[in-house]
Amino acid sequence: MIIKFFLLVISFIILLVLVSFFEKFSADPELYFLTFGTVLGQVLFPIWFFQGIEKMKYITIINIVTKFLFTIAIFIFVKQASDYYLVPLLTSLGAILAGGYSLYLIYKKFNVKFSVQKFNIVTSHLKGGVHLFLTSALSNLLTSSGTIILSFVSNNTIVGYYSASEKLFRAIVGLFTPITQALYPISCTKVNQENLAKPYIKKIFTIIGGIALILSLIVALLSKSIVNLIYGIEFINYSYVLAVMMIWLFFGVINNIIGIQYLTAMRKDKVYTYSFMAAASATVLLNIVLIPHFMIDGILFSMIFGEILLTLSMLGLIFRLKL
Q1: Does residue 65 share a domain with residue 1?
Q2: How far apart, in whole angstroms, are the C-alpha atoms of residue 232 and residue 239?
Q3: Alpha carbon 54 to chain centroid distance?
Q4: Cα distance between residue 132 and residue 179, in whole Å
Q5: pTM of structure
Q6: Of the candidates 20, 25, 46, 45, the residue with the CA atom closest to the CA atom of residue 35
Q7: Relative orientation angle of helices 223-231 and 194-221, to the nearest 10 degrees
Q8: DSSP code at position 266
């Protein structure tokens, strides 16, 4: 928790710099500060504990209940355009409530006591998780880099069309998050047993990869109807963005199986990190080169190229190192 709060402070300082010195962010600083509350909620939420004791149902129940309640609150309290600030405020309050209640739950129900740790213990854990942290940080930077670059070389309308499709994409990706989170503790046990590792990975690769493939095809085929239903006819010309993003989704799920459920679970996270850094570097470079010329299409090509490169890099290292 101390490490998470330390990173929270660093993140808040970065946000302060952005809203203070960059015109794109200084136009509406209150919106960014209110949204930042969701980061605090994520810091408070002890997902690590529920994963460790393999009680992921608490993650699902708490998140669903709080998100449902505060989504209803948004519909109740947001009456006009000037109430837009209530959306990030209520969303942040929901995340903070979920995190706070979770801490109370593990203290009361599981008798977990909190205490300040010694500096050497904190640094030891920080060093131990550096590869996974780098991968996670690079992943967030990677997914946001396209939108950031697009905002500098195009207008708000184009950014809005892309962001709308990306929100739908993130919602679909979110369907796999509880599954992969629930699998990780199991993966840590299975892949470290030589006779179980490969059959287990093949099994989840077939099942989850198959689900991802089928879902991707369905969404791609129905992308026009989905976009029209949610955003209206004016967004229909950009429905292809959601369809193409399904390639990104499929390889993203495959990379989670290989990188997290296999490599990281068997404590070969360095292999995953190095592969990810190579793919991320190539993706950001392509974003810088392609987006000014091809706008949204440049992002799509770069992200899909990066995901496929990550898949090939990890598989290449797995076979080369005989993992």
Answers
A1: yes
A2: 11
A3: 21
A4: 19
A5: 0.77
A6: 25
A7: 70
A8: T
- 211, amino acid identity: I
What is the pLDDT tens value at each position of the chain, 323 positions in all?
Answer: 677 888 888 889 988 998 888 776 777 888 889 889 999 998 999 888 887 787 878 888 888 888 888 888 888 888 887 788 888 899 899 999 999 999 999 988 888 887 777 777 767 766 666 666 777 777 777 778 888 899 889 888 899 899 889 989 988 988 888 788 888 888 988 988 888 888 999 999 999 999 999 999 999 999 999 999 888 898 999 999 999 999 999 999 999 999 999 998 898 888 988 898 899 889 999 999 999 999 999 999 999 999 999 999 999 999 998 87
Q: Same domain for 230 and 269? A: yes
Residue type, 52: G
Asked if 233 and 217 count as a contact pair (C-beta separation under 8 A), the reply is no
In whole angstroms, what is the distance from residue 61 CA to residue 156 CA?
37
Distance CA 223, CA 244 (A): 9
151 and 122, same domain (yes or no): no
SS (H, E, C) 68-113: HHHHHHHHHHCCCHHHCCHHHHHHHHHHHHHHHHHHHHHHHCCCCC
Rounded to whole angstroms, the Cα distance separating 142 from 126 reads 22
Same-domain status, 171 and 297:
yes
Alpha-carbon gap, residue 75 to 87, rounded angstroms: 9
Full residue range of the structural domain in which residue 76 is found: 1-127
195/205 Cα distance (integer angstroms) = 17
Residues 305 and 157 in one domain: yes
What number of other Cβ atoms are within 10 A of residue 146's Cβ? 23
Closest CA to 298 of 310, 313, 284: 284
What's the CA gap between 287 and 283, in Å, rounded?
A: 6
Query: What is the rounded distance in angstroms from the CA atom of residue 45 to the CA atom of residue 63?
Result: 10
